UniProtKB/TrEMBL annotation:
It comes from Centropus unirufus. The keyword Transmembrane helix applies. One of its GO terms (molecular function) is glycerol channel activity. CDD domains: MIP. NCBIfam families: MIP. This is AQP7 protein. The keyword Metal-binding does not apply. GO terms for cellular component: basolateral plasma membrane.
């Protein structure tokens, strides 16, 4: 909920403010701050499973029992859906003023992009899929680098901030084509909400039925990115204790 609130409300303020109350960087920062705080809020409870694609990848690799997947994904979906509804209520007056009460997905006064991603007009379905795939590969690579204790892991307590910076970097460099969903549970629940809240079924048909791409591409990107990390980095890492012994560092056992 928290990471979506910061991101979606930033998108709403930029669009409804007509460029006077922020710009694309504001949205990037909003999502980065939201991810950072979301990890701090949920990290001790669930390991901060904010992204269904990453959760599914952990299940495929055996790092997370499949029986836990439904509870994690349901939590992600409910949090994202609730955040979309909250932002809708927060900015309802501004939405009505901006659109004269006509909520559209495309056109000069389109507002659906506040809540979910849509491809730019010049982007093909294949190009958009590739953009989401590559962006998610970079996301999972960044997350694995930050948390890999056998490699050069981030200092304890900085992981959330650095993950937020990874998301910021993706937005800065890979957000133009599709708006960088990189997370099925970030994109689909708000899309369902907008379909219910007045935008209609156009949210599923726009962009050559774009809606499924931010669901499937991040799942594949997360899995492939994890395999890349395993193949080129993790398999070449030395065990922590062995590495420390070779460096002449004391080995400290802890319960």
């Amino acid at each position: 909920f928290m990471h979506q609130m910061f991101g979606l409300s930033s998108a709403a303020q930029v669009l409804l403010g007509k460029g006077h109350l922020g710009e694309q960087l504001s949205i990037n920062l909003g999502f980065a701050i939201g991810v950072t705080l979301g990890i701090h809020a949920a990290g001790g409870i669930s390991g901060a499973h904010l992204n269904a694609a990453i959760t599914i990848t952990h299940c495929i690799l055996g790092n997370l029992p499949w029986r836990k997947l439904p509870a994690y994904v349901i939590g992600q979906v409910l949090g994202s859906f609730t955040a979309a509804a909250t932002v809708f209520g927060l900015y309802y007056d501004a939405l009505y003023d901006y659109t004269n009460g006509v909520f559209t997905v495309t056109g000069p006064n389109a507002t659906a992009s506040i809540f979910s991603t849509y491809p730019a007009p010049y982007v093909s379905l294949a190009g958009g899929f590739f953009s989401e795939f590559i962006a998610t590969v970079m996301l999972i690579l960044g997350v694995l680098v930050i948390h890999d204790e056998k490699n050069n892991a981030a200092l304890k307590g900085t992981q959330a901030l650095l993950t937020g910076i990874v998301v910021l970097g993706i937005g800065l460099g890979m957000g133009m084509n599709t708006g960088y969903a990189i997370n099925p549970s970030r994109d689909l629940p708000p899309r369902v909400f907008t379909a219910m809240a007045g935008w209609g079924t156009d949210v599923f048909t726009a962009g050559h039925h774009w809606w499924w791409v931010p669901v499937i591409a991040p799942i594949l990107g997360s899995f492939v990115g994890t395999l890349i990390y395993k193949l080129f980095i993790d398999f070449h890492n030395q065990p922590v204790l062995e590495s420390e012994n070779e460096k002449g560092q004391p080995v400290v056992e802890s319960s």
